[in-house]
Amino acid sequence: MTSRLDQATIDLLGVLAYGELTAFERLATDARLAPTISDKHALASMAAAEFGHYQRLYDHLRSESVDPEEAMRPFVEPLDAFHDSTPPNDWLESLIKAYLGDGLAADFYREVATFVQDPVTRGLVLEVLADTGQASFAVATVTAAIAADPALAGRLALWGRRLVGEALIQAQRVAVERDALTELLVGGSLDLAGIGRLLTRLTDNHTARMQALGLQA
Amino acid sequence: MTSRLDQATIDLLGVLAYGELTAFERLATDARLAPTISDKHALASMAAAEFGHYQRLYDHLRSESVDPEEAMRPFVEPLDAFHDSTPPNDWLESLIKAYLGDGLAADFYREVATFVQDPVTRGLVLEVLADTGQASFAVATVTAAIAADPALAGRLALWGRRLVGEALIQAQRVAVERDALTELLVGGSLDLAGIGRLLTRLTDNHTARMQALGLQA
After folding, report:
1. Under 8 Å between Cβ of A11 and A178
2. Low-confidence ranges of chain B (pLDDT < 70)
3. How far is CA A161 from CA A55, A87, A107, A155, in A?
4. pTM (2 decimals)?
5. For residue A212, with 0-12 CB atoms within 10 Å meaning exposed, 13-18 middle and 19 or more buried, which class applies?
6. Contact (Cβ atoms closer than 8 angstroms) between residue B135 and residue B141
7. Which chain A residues are closer than 8 Å to B38 by Cβ?
8. Residues belonging to chain A with any Cβ–Cβ distance to chain B shorter than 8 Å
């Protein structure tokens, strides 16, 4: 198939789509850890929202004559590796993973989206990155748990730092292997100083999310 | 809250809703066993369809002034016990469980639905029991796998029989504990001979599904 989309844009849609598909799978799996029906309902609703995003990206790829599976394939290994290396041990770790992971991914893709040439694709990317409701629910639940048992904060802060570390390892791997995607970012007028500022923005946002949870970044 | 729905109807909606929610969870979890992206896509799509059904039942309960969590609560233990006692060991077992489980549940609820007084509820029950696409996908995948490796048929047939056995154990438990639901079925003009015919219909349909998979019931 030939598509009017360039390889970098296809890569971006592919990694986003597989990211949403795995987020769906893991959130739905983690719903089993939920202590109450109402918590299970909340997590399952988030998972279903991620699937809705996945479906839109999938349909968009097809409508642009791109085989969605081909587009996702290069990102199966790094994304599976990320999830396999970070299985939540309990309900709170699962919520924190959903909140921090979604937040970091959204920040990153939002930055990349500004370099996407095709306006329809850019609009779709920004749209599927909108919050699926994790944020307020995760923050409320985690802060309440820490208030009830302050000793939790240490373990959960370590968990948050570990998640970012594992995410960076896999992101670096993608950057090395997917030239087009990396060039979209770097070639999109981002020089070394620009990349430095990008990393600072991402780190600042991550720190803000950790603080919202009541955790030290 | 007081609702115009009677307890038996609330029970039916509750067990259906929690059934869909756990089906969603388990299917999405099993999507991790899928050997290809395309299989994963298929299973995740079915899971998302189950969630859509769950959402409709949940919304219907709320619109009828019933707390959905209260309605689901009595069925958490038996349904969780069913799933905990039947974790699929591989992708094929997971597909068979989805297909047989969904089929048996649909047959049963379809029978019960005829006794539901409220027409809106009856319509909704029949609608959410419609096939979510498992059937043809599961049949095609399982029969292809057995054609490629006929030795599989024995193990998978045992698996199918075990699923029904475990389902019956939990159904019996629900029948004993939920008088209203049982009376809906029995009181709905079903005498002993009628129950015998009901069980025969359910068993016949199950046998037909096993045969469609190429398995001995």
Report:
1. yes
2. 1, 131-134, 185-192
3. 31, 14, 17, 10
4. 0.84
5. middle
6. no
7. 69
8. 18, 21, 24-25, 28-29, 31-32, 36-38, 40-41, 44-45, 47-48, 51-52, 54-55, 58, 68-69, 72-73, 76
